[in-house]
From TrEMBL:
Short name of one Pfam family: AraA_N
Gene name linked to the record: araA
Domain L-arabinose isomerase C-terminal span(s) in chain numbering: 319-461
EC number: 5.3.1.4
Keyword Manganese part of the UniProt annotation: yes
InterPro entries listed in its UniProt record: Ara_Isoase_C, AraA_central, AraA_N, AraA_N_sf, Fuc/Ara_isomerase_C, Fucose_isomerase_N/cen_sf, Lara_isomerase
UniProt xrefs under Gene3D superfamilies: 3.40.50.10940
All residue ranges annotated as the L-arabinose isomerase N-terminal domain in the record: 58-169
UniProt keyword Metal-binding, yes or no: yes
The protein's name: L-arabinose isomerase
Organism of this sequence: Streptomonospora litoralis
Length: 465
């Protein structure tokens, strides 16, 4: 889902005051806006509106961006433009905003005259506009850079990815099959407050619907999925045809139901599946492959964690659901794993991903086919969404690295050892003080700065530990 570039609208603001003084200034500055869009082609697909010279122009442009389902709006001052002409439309805009404090010419030279001053006077328009948004309580990002530079492209790319993630999050539906795990408090959330504040919605899906959908699937679809697995994974010869077909039916049925319900993320709880009485095994490998195809996922009915895995897909690519199992003080690291679900796209590239026959007593069902891999060594980031009560939410983030640690031969589920940049002791002290949950998303790479922009745009408190 994060393979596509973010789509952003460029809202260039000026005013008609300068037309008589500098004939052709509107066309000249419109060309400047187009050059900005061309410079960003590697980080975003840009739609450039006609220069905004009044309130009607601004409303028409922003509504066009929204109707075209863009991810965000980049506001650029083409000259000075009085803020009251855009105050209302920026306050009401449904899309995330970024104010680019830039100008056509990055250097003031002795050759400058009044025309050059006028072409490059966006800075005080940016001040006027930013002041209006601050007074209105409107969240927005700001980038002050030389616009043709790599630094500008990097910062706008980060904002654009965050805008894509926030916009998708506001529309997200999280399917919960059955119910959430009893007694697991850090996954509990006031659904109405969550939806009002951030946008995601919980859609409860009955296990019976999953059972019926499994039974109705055509054999051809099951066979096609098994052929894909044979091509992609090292398949355990001990897995029977019956075991593999049953697992494949679960995966295909879950995906079909998510599509029918419009869900981009989901969660299953082993008791909800096990106690139903109609299922043979838990959908372990299904969760791994559905994450790899872009769905958010979390175990135990945890909709909060499923939503942040989905956001991780949108923000940085290949969100991986995991949790902290144990601390390893000699290596200053934490063993990361879960019961058997993990995004195989974060697997080491020097080892095959294995589809194994794996005994699992949890749920009281038969052995679930499970994808086993170790996480790729290198930089990585953890993020946990915390419900603080009411409409207050916090994201706890830790950067670090996945170690090239020894194989744990008895561990039959995805795993890796994460060394926090701040060290295990300081990281965990900070994580616990901030209320970080036990379910989280991992992304490969250092993405704390991306999560910070995401939080600024979404209205979520950001804590890095």
């Amino acid at each position: 889902m994060s393979d596509r570039l973010p789509t952003i609208g460029i809202l260039g603001i000026m005013q008609p005051l300068y037309d008589d003084m500098l004939p052709g200034i509107t066309d000249r500055q419109a060309g400047y806006a187009r050059r900005i869009a061309e410079s960003l082609a590697d980080v975003a697909d840009c739609v450039v509106a006609d220069p905004v010279r009044g309130r009607a122009d601004a409303e028409r442009a922003v509504r066009g961006f929204e109707n075209d389902d863009l991810d965000g709006v980049l506001v650029v001052m083409l000259t000075y433009g009085p803020s009251l002409r855009v105050t209302r439309v920026l306050h009401d805009a449904r899309l995330p905003l970024c104010l680019a404090n830039i100008q056509p010419d990055p250097v003031v030279t002795p050759e400058w005259d009044m025309a050059d001053m006028t072409y490059n006077q966006g800075i005080h328009g940016a001040q006027d506009t930013a002041n209006a948004m601050v007074r209105a309580g409107r969240a927005f990002d700001v980038v002050t850079e030389e616009w043709p530079s790599d630094a500008f492209r990097e910062r706008i790319g980060r904002w654009a990815r965050a805008a894509r993630a926030v916009t998708a999050w506001k529309r997200l539906k999280v399917g919960v099959f059955g119910y959430a795990m009893n007694g697991m408090g850090d996954a509990r959330v006031d659904e109405a407050a969550w939806m009002r504040s951030l946008g995601p919605e919980i859609e409860v899906i009955a296990p019976g619907a999953l059972h019926r959908t499994m039974a109705e699937l055509p054999e051809s679809a099951v066979g096609a999925l098994l052929a894909e697995e044979d091509e992609r994974f090292a398949v355990d010869e001990r897995l029977s045809k019956e075991e593999r077909e049953d697992h494949a039916r679960m995966q295909l049925a879950i995906e079909q139901l998510l599509t029918e319900h419009g869900c981009g993320a989901y969660s299953t709880h082993f008791d909800a599946i096990g106690e139903d009485g109609r299922f043979t095994r838990l959908p372990m490998a299904a969760a791994s492959s559905l994450m790899a195809s872009g769905y958010g996922f979390a175990g135990e009915g945890d909709a909060l964690a499923a939503s942040v895995v989905y956001a991780g897909h949108q923000l940085a690519g290949d969100g991986h659901f995991t949790e902290m199992y144990a601390m390893d003080f000699p290596t200053d690291s934490i063993l990361m794993s879960h019961m058997g679900e993990g995004n195989w796209k974060v697997a080491r590239d020097d080892e095959p991903v294995r589809l194994i026959k794996r005994p699992l007593d949890i749920g009281g069902l038969d052995d679930p086919p499970t994808l086993l891999f170790r996480i790729q060594p290198g930089p990585a980031t953890l993020a946990s969404l915390v419900a603080l009560g009411g409409e207050r939410f916090r994201l706890v983030v830790a950067e670090g690295e996945v170690l090239d640690s020894p194989v744990l031969p008895a561990l039959e589920m995805p795993y890796g050892q994460f060394r926090p940049a701040s060290g295990v002791r300081d990281c965990m002290d900070g994580w616990l003080r901030a209320g970080g949950t036990h379910h989280m998303v991992m992304n490969l790479g250092r993405t704390a700065a991306d999560w910070k922009v995401f939080c600024d745009l979404a209205g979520v408190e950001f804590v890095q530990v």
